[in-house]
Inverse folding.
């Protein structure tokens, strides 16, 4: 039993009076509300401060008695972005009843918020609150309520089980643990029986619940503690540590600077400002998306019947998601499918059904409570995940209500769709041939629907504010998502200017795409091969479609990460064969495994390393584990037709490593009966390899610059650390000098040299690279047409001149300025 004292001075009200169903219908838990008369929130009991929203509008406390208490100052106050709030307490601090937590300006918050009424909620099931009278004025410290039962009763059960393991990793994913990584974590844990929590500082989450993982709000660069208990705790902790440390394919880039999302859109005349979610420019006709909420009965028709109905609707939705195509849509479907299995949602819905609610009411309550928890974090990225919860809420309820699959809304030609929010499932129904753009009042730039729009090439603006919903249907609009603007009343001049810009863009893109399948030659006839980087079996088709002349880097790690055992020789051979077949007879450069260091795998026990980027990774690891290397080399030789096959070695620092791999390749050739020589190249991605390129090129068949690692090692800037992200620029003259040295070394022995790091995908870098002697660029498939188009504009003499000037620059900014001058 815990006594709660009043955390605020004001009028005590029952929760039912809060004008928000999430609180009033107790979707997050029981509690009460206070209409404040002073701008101070104090601790209602002795507690640990578990979380404070970065925007200062809410605080979560772990009461000494075990209950979790959320105090949410006013309604929709997250939109104030912190204005008017001053956080006094510190996350992790032990506070006594009456200690100040947050101060706020009654006047400022009161003027902007929907309501100042402040819900005080006991989060989660199992706790009950007994309130002593409402409708009265209370002062801070007045006795208010008693909490009975629940909270933390089971907390130590798991710890008592046999076996425990702990791992600490730094989160490399650019956007931290957002929906897709959360889904992967839950998925990876499935084969294990261990209980697991993930913790960042004082915040912890059940690793089997996506909703809990999202609420953890774990960010790029934060240290995450993985604690597992149970008989297979060690394996489970290892698997999750490896998964996270491997970056899940999202560690290539530091977080992009987020455009500040205006809490309320700025309207200047007929211009509405928003946030770019997908780039592009469009002229179109305003078309509003109207979606009616499906009504659900509150009361159920019997617990067993409602449980069965919910189970069948969930199964129906899982089936629908399993049939989703490929690419971005498939990834998002997988994230939604994982949400459907989330234990936090399932438990909340089941508890409501057990209390007599209908399946629809229970499901809606569970998803909305989870959404409210995400909103309460105040974290803009997590708040964007609310749309995913709304989507699965709507689709499951539609199945429960027996509605047919929602019909596609009719769109006029060149429609600019206007909506409060757009859900991924709604986007997927839209007729792309008629969709010119999208503008939403809410939403965020990294929402799933934004990813879908970007991959479909549909310009999209989000967070444009409520004014967008008042745009008349059928109005002609100019959506300039590149400039984050919607023109709601464009005059003749603006329309004509936009038409001209659109025509220019269409021409440039069409020219680049039309010529994407032609060889790339500079204007004076120098042949530059433009290849594609591949990281998964499915990428090969996109590479060929984009004009890739082959694969310049197959990152084979994708086959090895996220699994409990290494892939067998047969499995690898099948995958390499599938990729080779999709490439037709184009060359395929397979990179041997680049795992270890910051890309560990669970089934390879390795000692913890202080500096993993300088540790046992790439060729060092494969030479230390010849079984892995031999298996992979045999699989490559069996899977890839010999005429197409080339092999490349990562993280080399000296020729001896290449020699050792060549011996292994000879063993593999004998084992597979391959008599022809297979070209064996070296990635130049350490300063040592660049400086020893002539010695390496004497023995290598080709060289390829890994500009991502070469940059991090040359500049001593961790490529995954946000603090150094802005400095990791491969156009830094120090990196360019290393590339120049490598090119000289290759030329000395008549070897070709390419670039397969991120620098090759940047058309702006092409002139300098060609000027330094690079003759192959292996780029992301989507960049191939633009890279080829840029190559065709260049002349070798000019490239050499700009390269020479770039080598003489003092920093990357000077090099970029030089490129700007000469473009
Ligand atoms: C590189 O380092 O530039 C490279 C291509 O390898 P990865 O990005 O896979 O480390
Ligand atoms: Mg590399």
């Amino acid at each position: 039993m815990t006594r709660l004292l009043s955390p605020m001075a004001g009028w005590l009200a029952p929760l039912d009076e809060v004008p928000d169903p999430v609180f009033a219908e107790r979707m997050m838990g029981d509690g009460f509300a206070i209409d404040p008369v002073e701008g101070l929130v104090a601790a209602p009991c002795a507690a640990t401060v578990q979380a404070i929203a970065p925007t200062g509008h809410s605080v979560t406390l772990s009461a000494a008695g075990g209950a979790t208490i959320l105090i949410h100052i006013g309604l929709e106050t997250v939109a104030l972005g912190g204005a008017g709030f001053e956080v006094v307490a510190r996350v992790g601090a032990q506070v006594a009843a009456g200690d100040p937590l947050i101060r706020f300006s009654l006047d400022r918050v009161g003027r902007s918020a929907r309501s100042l009424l402040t819900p005080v909620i006991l989060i989660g099931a199992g706790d009950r609150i007994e309130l002593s009278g409402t409708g009265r004025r209370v002062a801070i410290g007045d006795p208010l309520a008693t909490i009975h039962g629940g909270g933390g009763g089971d907390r130590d059960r798991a710890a008592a089980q046999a076996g425990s393991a702990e791992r600490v990793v730094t989160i490399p994913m650019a956007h931290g643990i957002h929906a897709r990584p959360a889904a992967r974590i839950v998925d990876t844990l499935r084969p294990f029986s261990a209980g697991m929590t993930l913790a960042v500082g004082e915040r912890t989450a059940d690793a089997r619940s996506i909703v809990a993982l999202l609420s953890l709000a774990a960010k790029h660069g934060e240290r995450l503690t993985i604690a597992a208990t149970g008989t297979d705790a060690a394996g489970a902790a290892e698997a999750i540590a490896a998964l996270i440390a491997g970056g899940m394919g999202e560690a290539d880039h530091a977080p992009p600077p987020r455009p500040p999302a205006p809490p309320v859109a700025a309207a200047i005349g007929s211009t509405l400002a928003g946030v770019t979610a997908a780039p592009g420019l469009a002229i179109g006709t305003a078309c509003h998306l109207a979606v009616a909420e499906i009504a659900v009965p509150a009361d159920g028709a019997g617990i067993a019947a409602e449980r069965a109905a919910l189970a069948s609707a969930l199964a129906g939705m899982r089936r629908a998601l399993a049939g989703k195509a490929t690419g971005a849509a498939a990834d998002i479907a997988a994230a939604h499918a994982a949400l459907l299995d989330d234990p936090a949602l399932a438990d909340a819905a089941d508890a409501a059904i057990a209390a007599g609610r209908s399946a629809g009411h229970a499901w809606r309550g569970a998803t909305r409570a989870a959404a409210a928890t995400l909103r309460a974090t105040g974290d803009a990225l997590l708040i964007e995940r609310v749309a995913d919860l709304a989507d699965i809420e709507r689709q499951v309820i539609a199945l429960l209500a027996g509605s047919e699959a929602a019909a596609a809304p009719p769109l006029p030609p060149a429609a600019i769709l206007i909506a409060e929010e757009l859900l991924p499932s709604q986007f997927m129904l839209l007729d792309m041939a008629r969709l010119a753009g999208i503008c939403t009042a809410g939403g965020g730039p990294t929402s799933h629907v934004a990813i879908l729009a970007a991959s479909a090439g549909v310009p999209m603006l989000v967070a444009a504010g409520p004014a967008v919903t008042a745009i008349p249907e059928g109005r002609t609009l100019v959506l300039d998502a590149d400039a984050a603007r919607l023109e709601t009343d464009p005059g003749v001049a603006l329309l004509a200017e936009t038409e001209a810009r659109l025509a220019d863009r269409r021409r440039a893109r069409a020219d680049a795409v039309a010529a994407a399948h032609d060889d790339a030659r500079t204007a004076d006839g120098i042949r530059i091969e433009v290849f594609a980087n591949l990281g998964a079996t499915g990428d090969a088709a996109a590479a060929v479609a984009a004009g890739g002349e082959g694969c310049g880097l197959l990152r084979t790690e994708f086959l090895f990460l996220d699994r409990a055992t290494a892939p067998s020789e047969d499995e690898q051979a099948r995958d390499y064969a599938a990729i080779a077949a999709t490439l037709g007879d184009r060359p395929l450069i397979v990179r041997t495994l680049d795992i270890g260091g910051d890309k560990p795998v669970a089934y390879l026990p390795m000692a913890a390393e202080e500096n993993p980027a300088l540790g046992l990774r790439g060729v060092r690891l494969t030479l230390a584990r010849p079984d892995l290397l031999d298996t992979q080399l045999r699989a490559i030789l069996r899977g890839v037709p010999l005429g197409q096959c080339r092999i490349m070695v990562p993280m080399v620092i000296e020729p001896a490593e290449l020699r050792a791999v060549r011996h292994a390749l000879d063993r593999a050739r004998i084992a597979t009966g391959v008599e022809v020589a297979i070209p064996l190249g070296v990635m130049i991605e350490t300063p040592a390899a660049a400086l020893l390129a002539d010695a390496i090129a004497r023995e290598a068949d080709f060289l390829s610059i890994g500009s991502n690692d070469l940059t991090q090692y040359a500049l001593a800037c961790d490529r995954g650390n946000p603090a150094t992200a802005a400095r990791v620029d491969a156009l830094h003259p120090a990196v360019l000098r290393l590339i120049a040295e490598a090119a000289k070394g290759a030329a000395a022995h008549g070897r070709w040299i390419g670039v397969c790091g991120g620098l090759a995908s940047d058309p702006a870098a092409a002139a300098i690279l060609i000027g330094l002697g690079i003759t192959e660029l292996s780029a992301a498939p989507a960049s191939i047409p633009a890279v080829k188009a840029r190559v065709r504009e260049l002349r070798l003499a000019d490239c050499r001149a700009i390269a020479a000037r770039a080598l003489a620059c003092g920093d990357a900014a000077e090099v970029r300025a030089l490129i700007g001058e000469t473009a």
DSSP finds 28 helices and 36 strands in the chain. Confidence is low (pLDDT under 50) at residues 150-161, 252-268.
